[in-house]
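Subgroup meeting minutes
Present: P.N., E.W., G.H.
Scribe: E.W.

1. P.N. recapped why we're keeping a running log of single-chain structure predictions: easier to compare across weeks, and new members can see raw inputs and outputs side by side.
2. G.H. added today's entry (356 aa).
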Amino acid sequence: MRKHVWKWLLPVVLLINACSKDDDGPTPPAVKPTSGLFILGEGAFGSNGAMVTYYDLSTSTASGDIFKQENGIALGDVANDAITYGAKMYIAVNNSNKLVIANAQTTKLIISISITLPRNIISYKGNVLVTSWDNKVSVIDTATLTVTKTINTGLNPEGLAIQGNYLYVANSGGLNFPDYDKTVSVIDVNTWAETKKITIGPNPQKVGINSLGQVLVSSFGDYTPANPPKIYILDGSNNTLKDSITTPVSDMTVFNDTIYAYYTEYDENFQIKGIHYPVIDSKTKAIVRNNFITDGTVITYPYGISVDESNGDVYITDAKNFINTGEVFCFDRNGKLKFKFSVSPAVGPKKVLFLR
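Output recorded in log:
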């Protein structure tokens, strides 16, 4: 969910009114994924309604809740992030305080590990690293599936990425409104010890890396003219603040040195004023396109953005009103819609994973 108070509460207020799908009759038989997409649905807050949907690219059909079909149980309450690494899928289920580990092809449950309010996940050399809102990063050995190390960070860490010998963690302080954190923790991956904190703007969120070895960190700001949203550029060679890009983003992903992003703009009554989809050259800071979507396709409430690295297709999830079923839109690299599909009955689609 969004990481400052009102933006965090808005989806919760809407989601909590949604009906849980856990008792909608018998569970259908599991499908057998071959190649396609997994879509992580956040689910309604408090409803135990997080889901994984499988979309078969060859038949253009969605499976519904494949995790429940395969395991006979619900995934949990509020899924925030997921990755596949090796033969396993790792899912951060925030409000259920667990990291769910499943088979990457079938979503068959392997084990759940207790982690307090997990948020974002990356992989690194046989480990999976998970930020959590109790001000920590957990290091999980993917062979033993145990937590081997916990690292203290700043407040309410969110996104994370590795460049060279360092792990960079965005410390949001999003639960400490209006006193957001303003730092990025720099952690030595050889010792798993924090070596310094780099101060940037308020409420840091996403972290990406470009081919120059620069660390790109988005910041929501504090909603005052003095601290607008930005993307901060850190020098990975000496771990210092190098520059910034003034274009605001709500979410972003970095692919081939290009930042694909969206920014949802609100008025003083917290109503959507506009939605922007900037495309940015991370090396030059130049705006490649002010609006990625070039064919007039309208998305109600963008909630996640992913790039298929095999072909450059860009996927944007649409949470709609956080009550009704969401959708996923696939665009080619020129911003033209290739296809879209519903993730029924999932609410709040957030992340797209690619099955090969």
